[in-house]
Design a protein that fits this description.
The protein is mainly alpha-helical. It is built from 14 helices and no strands. The longest helix is centred in the middle third of the chain and has 31 residues.
Length: 319
């Protein structure tokens, strides 16, 4: 039993490492390939693995039972979480260092919890609120500073706006899942949104970038292709598989806590693999942002525990 739990925790650390490494891999790809073409290839490759995974789990037959509203919800989730997020992801990495970009992950839970409080009237305790503020300050310090030249600052500034697009798309994906995808399991959601999102990216790439962009893919260096395959199979298929295993074994709250490690690995790998500078503002901002994420996670766990202890009769009377 202990060995099984240890393996689960190690896989979750591996998941965080793969998601952290995705920023460095994405940077390599963005420098050599057309962004939309590369993004569509990433999710096309991942789609093959995920569909095979569903087939092995005998989950493909469950697609027939999905309602029209669930299919529409999956399409909306694919538009936000795959098409939108990956487009902003690739475009931003053309302008922003991978280490700085990885810090954007720290904004996702805060914005999600804030909108959940507005839309679903979820309670925000002091720990969650303090974590939100700390993460926002840390992300601003890490992403906004450190450029010595005006032109570089302008590029990073626009890249920062693109990174905020990543945040907006991920939050939309999360909230869409909560609103319209009840009853759809995580594997089905991930697989279907990946396939639909890949097709959206492919069509958009052919329209916007054209066939020449795809012809130029053959000229991309081996490092770019290796990074693209790592994004598809490592950061998408394998990382999600390990995350789902963690959720099944430990629960969603415990498994999601490992996401706190994603920006740590992101900054580490960008420094080791890409030789990116790690100025003081990046360290300070990353430390504050990651601490904020940890505080939000603790606050969320406390809120869940308090809700679980509240009698159902009292819960039903809450506005």
């Amino acid at each position: 039993m202990k060995n099984t739990l240890m393996a689960t925790h190690l896989r979750l650390v591996g998941m965080a490492a793969l998601w952290g490494a995705s920023w460095s891999w994405g940077k390599v790809v963005a420098q050599s390939m057309a962004p939309l073409a590369a993004a569509s290839l990433r999710f096309l490759f991942a789609s093959v693995v995920l569909v095979l995974w569903m087939q092995r789990a005998s989950a493909l037959r469950g697609l027939k039972s999905l309602s029209r509203n669930q299919w529409l919800g999956l399409a909306a989730a694919a538009l936000a979480g795959v098409f939108g997020y990956s487009s902003f992801f690739m475009l931003s990495l053309q302008l922003v260092p991978a280490g700085k970009a990885a810090i954007v992950v720290t904004l996702n839970p805060g914005v999600t919890l804030l909108l959940a409080a507005i839309l679903f009237r979820e309670h925000l305790n002091p720990a969650i609120l303090a974590g939100m503020v700390l993460s926002a300050i840390g992300a601003y310090i890490a992403i906004g500073g450190g450029s010595s030249q005006a032109s570089d600052g302008a590029s990073v500034g626009f890249g920062g706006l693109l990174l905020l697009g990543c945040v907006a798309c991920w939050v939309a994906y999360t909230l869409i899942g909560r609103l319209v995808l009840k009853g759809v399991d995580a594997l089905t959601t991930t697989t279907v949104t990946t396939v639909i999102g890949a097709l959206m990216l492919l069509l958009t790439s052919l329209i916007v970038e054209g066939v020449p962009a795809w012809q130029k893919l053959a000229q991309a260096p081996a490092s770019a292709w290796g990074s693209l395959l790592a994004l598809a199979f490592g950061a998408t298929a394998i990382a999600y598989a390990w995350y789902f295993e963690g959720v099944k074994a430990l629960g969603a709250g415990a498994a999601s806590g490992y996401i706190t490690l994603v920006p740590v690995f992101g900054v580490l790998f960008s420094s080791l693999w890409l030789g990116e500078a790690t100025p003081a503002n990046l360290f300070i901002g990353a430390a504050l942002a990651i601490s904020g994420m940890a505080m939000m996670h603790v606050g969320r766990r406390r809120a869940e525990q308090a809700t679980a202890k509240t009698p159902k009769t009292l819960r039903s009377t809450r506005p």
